Amino acid sequence: MNIPSTLKTTGRAALLGSLVLAALGTVAAFAQEAAPAAAAAAPAAAPTRVLDTGNTAWMLTSTALVLMMTIPGLALFYGGMVRKKNVLATIMQSFAITCLVTVLWFMFGYSLAFSDGGGVNSYIGGTSKFFHHGITTASLWLPGVANIPEFVFSMFQMTFAIITPALIAGAFAERFKFSALLIFMALWLLVVYVPIAHWVWGGGFLGTAGVLDFAGGTVVHINAGVAGLVCALVLGKREGYGTTNMAPHNLVYSVIGASLLWVGWFGFNAGSELAADGLAGAAMLNTQVATAAAALAWMFAEWIVAKKPSVLGIISGAVAGLVAVTPASGFVNPTGAFIVGIVAGVVCYLSAVKVKHMFGYDDSLDAFGVHGVGGIIGALLTGVLADPAINSLGAGASLGKQIYGVAVTIVWTGIATFVILYIVKALVGLRPTTQEEVEGLDISQHGEVVP
């Protein structure tokens, strides 16, 4: 049979096309089979280093909440507990400390606490971020983890640096010169607060040793409480202490202040997770449970001992619970937080009301009795009650490590505060004159009075 040449050519082309299509199909099939295997063999993708808007929004909110704790929260809490002739001076202390610490943190504090200190990083950070040098809007803190702007992280930590020295003022209320206050607080921030913040949170030796402090039991509360006790001992008692009526002039202010502290503390504790996630939620619930438990524990303890539950007692108990749960809030479960609150409420009541009078020191507004003692309770119980199911870091918790962290903080804070006080005393003196103190610090230090 004779086949025309055109058909022969067409047939060969069709055969060649069929072979090409078959080959392509085989390659495609092989590629489809190989793709999953290649994907499985590929290394895991690097963590995303893009700003997390959810985390950032929560941290912006938390920062505002923590700033609110000092102004107006602490200012009103302390202001209501002093005598009327000292209320403006007391509120002024919180406000002025907020301004002073803000400037010092921006200039030096942040860098010394949270930048790399090189060969001395176990003890102090470096100078590379003085005046926030090198930080831009694109700079992220914990890139691949929190993914929040470093500016936001610095601002959040600034609010902690603000409230810590402001807490100390409760121990020496009604008897500290304003000029001395400014010098003391500036030196104390840089010599005491900043190093301890670095030791625990900035890569220093306490953090690497496994000391757990989720939101500031050692860095803030033990630190401020011990410093307050040293101040009270060095300054001595207020004029007329023990003979003159020194009852709070307006507990309504103090209740409002305590309420603002309570609400703001959610930013303090839940915000310390640096993310909007489940652990932040656990820290928030733990904060609420411990605070309520401590308030009730203090109230009932006072009711049993003094026969009446007082307004000052229940708000003091609430603050004691807030303090004690701070280091534990991101490590314990809600039952653990409940235990922390009950223990803090009872022990802080005994410390503030009984122990202070037993030893005769004048811790005016119980900065040590509540913050120092409450911080120690919370730090130690963190080592006992930490739950790895809440936070995996809890698996390494131990009472011994927590005792080590507490002891180092007490020793450094106590010695450094004592030295700073005597430096300030040599420069400008610490106390106003007896006449000025009797007249009241509002008029003698600021030339103003509350009508």
Description:
This protein has one domain (53-446): Ammonium transporter AmtB like domains (Ammonium transporter fold), CATH 1.10.3430.10. 69% of the residues lie in helices and 1% in strands. The protein has 15 helices and two strands. The chain has helices at residues 5-41, 53-81, 87-114, 150-168, 178-201, 205-208, 217-235, 251-269, 278-306, 311-325, 334-359, 367-385, 399-428, 434-439, 441-446; strands at residues 140-141, 148-149. A two-stranded antiparallel ribbon has the order 1-2. The longest helix is centred in the first third of the chain and has 37 residues, at 5-41.
- The overall pLDDT, averaged over residues, is 91
Integer tally of domains? 1
CATH architectural grouping: Orthogonal Bundle
Q: What is the number of beta strands?
A: 2
Q: Helix/strand-derived class?
A: mainly alpha
Helix content: 55-70%
Strand order of the largest sheet: 1-2
* CATH fold naming: Ammonium transporter fold
Quaternary status: single chain
Query: Which of globular, elongated, flat, extended, rod-shaped describes the shape?
Result: globular
C-alpha end-to-end distance: 126 Å
Helix/strand order: HHHEEHHHHHHHHHHHH
β-strand percent reads under 5%
How many separate helices? Answer: 15
Name the CATH superfamily classification.
Ammonium transporter AmtB like domains
Characterize the biggest β-sheet.
Answer: 2 strands, antiparallel
Unreliable stretches: 1-42
Kindly provide the radius of gyration, computed on alpha-carbon positions and rounded to a whole number of angstroms.
30 Å
CATH class term:
Mainly Alpha
